[in-house]
Structures are given as structure tokens and as C-alpha cells.
Amino acid sequence: MADIETEAAKRLPDDIKGFVASGAGRELTLQANRSALDHARLIPRVLVDVGDVTTACTLLGAPAALPVAVAPMAYHRALHPDGELATAAAARRTGAPFTVSTLSSQTVEDIAATGGTLWFQLYWLKDRGLVAELLRRAEAAGCRALMLTVDVPRMGRRIADMRSGFAVPPWVRPVHLHGRDVEPGPVPSQSHRRAGASAVAEHTRAVFDPSLSWKDVAWLREQTELPLVLKGILHPDDAATAVDLGVDALVVSNHGGRQLEGAIAAIDALPDIADVVAGRAELLDGGVSCGTDILKALALGASGVMVGRPVLWGLATAGAAGVARVLHLLKEELETEMAIAGCPNVAAARRLVVQSQRRDTGH
Length: 363
What we know:
By secondary structure, the chain is of the alpha/beta class. The chain contains 14 helices and 13 strands. The chain has an eight-stranded parallel sheet. The protein has a three-stranded antiparallel sheet with strand order 1-12-13, with no helix packed on it. Strands 2-3 form a two-stranded antiparallel ribbon.
């Protein structure tokens, strides 16, 4: 996977590469995600028949070829002209769900035409009519779940973007936020580039509603029969409140280290939250970049993981073929690690014991 990232870095302008790779502040949380995954130690089982290992599973009620979903990420067309259409097509071929972002650079309808399992990620917008419209569009396009991101009342201080004055290329736009009578905020493109500031951060501040609260989650739960997922949960009490409100699943996530500097690593937050949700689907998002990371997440209580940056690196290298290369590599690595750990299937992987230098946890 590191080779794919290196290859992508050679192809991308520095500002776009920085937009994808960077975290908030001094990037302490970005580093913590990787460090925590590295410090988790699996205790393998032996003398188990692993002649036939399968990574097949169910994620949010839909079959998947492996316990991996593509995380919601903005502006794929900034990395490759085919954008989200390429990423979604590769996910379909690999059997992984694809999450359409509110800040997608191609429409949910066009992405749905590629086939496969789609989820729709929703940011809470000041334009409540647009929130309702996006929900209906996601339902009509056949999305199988609605994922509300709850950890972005405003965008974190991403120093790399501020230093580069980051703005998306002129051919890229957040298509779901435009085309109405009143445009909700300026397009964060080159025409809005300003030294020392991120045009993307200024755009999100203009359109995101920081007043999002549990009453809004309750309202959203009433608006749709789709499985409702909250992304950005790190505290067990928040997990418990979500369950009480009828939320179907949680994504344990610190936004890839891009929001609160110094937040807990996602993998460290996972076991306590998995205990609270008591069998409901939960996904880990944050730092996953190899098959061993996936196996550790399963052993610590996750039903699956969301993968972000590696997918974008693959997209930058070769479009749909590059994304497929990344997902196939993750599947191949996971199969190998499951066999060595004595796990013929995902259910067995979730029974593995993990020890960490910081804490000992068994699941």
C-alpha cells in the first residue's frame, strides 16, 4: 500500500496531495491512529482448519465480499477525471459498499448507475430544505443506508491546506449543494483561493450548521426507514444515546485525524463502544491501511472498517483500476492474516484476543 501512495504522490500537485494526506493541527491524532493500530497485538489461534478462508460478511444488512466499505470522501475528481464514478465502479467489482459524500463531485444518481451497494453520507446543512432533498434523492437512487457525520460543527485547522491556500480545481464542485435557486455558499474553487486560508474550510463554514444536536438526530430518524448510521462517535455515552434514539449503527471515527487535534485514536475508542452497542453493527474509521489493521478492528469489536486515504491514492494512480488494486490488496492481505491467525471466517476473527501496550482487551 505504501508503494501505491508513493506512486500517487508523484502524480498529484502538492496542494491536492496535502489535502488528502494531512491532519489537523500538529497531526497528533493522525499519528495516534497509526500508532494505536501498530501497538495492538493479536493472539493467534492454532490447529484450526483454514483450508477454506472467506472474508464474506454482512455490513448494514447488505452482503459484502470483505468487511470493508469505502469511506465518504469529498471531491474525487480532484484526483482523477473519472472521480466517484471510478471509485464506485471499483467498489462494486470488489464487493465493497461505497459511501457517497454530500461533498461528492458527481451526483448520487450518476454514481448509483454504476451499480453496487451505496450508502449516502449527510452533513447537517443550514439549508434544512436541502437536507430533506438530499435524503429523498439518496432513497430514490437506491442507497441502502444514511450516514450522518456528527463530528464537524466546523472544519478542523488543517495547517497544510492553510499554508497552500487550498482550493479545489476549477472543474470540481460540490454538485449536491448547487443547482437550487439560492446557492448555499461559494464554490471552494480556484476563484476563491486566498493566501493563508482553505477555501474548502470557508465553504463548509458557510453551509454546515454547527447547531446539530440529538434532537436533530431524532428528527432524522423519523424521516427515513433507511438504516441510520452516525459517523464520528468516540465516547461510550454518545453511543448509548444513539442506540436509545434508534440509530442502527455507529462509525467509531476521529475523522482520520482531521478534526480535533489530540482526540483519542479510533481503535482505542472501539472496544468500549462495541460493548455499549451490544451486537449492533459498528464500523471503525481511522488509519486502516492493511489487512492486519482490518483483522485487529474485527477482534476489537468492529463489524467492519471504512477505508479512506488508500482508496484515493489508488484513484490517483489509475482511476477505477487503481482503486480495485487497493481493495483487492486489502482482501488478499486480510485472507492471509486470517488464515495465519486461525480464523476461517469473519465471525472467528471477531473472537480473537488483542493485547495492547496501553490496555489489554479480549473479545
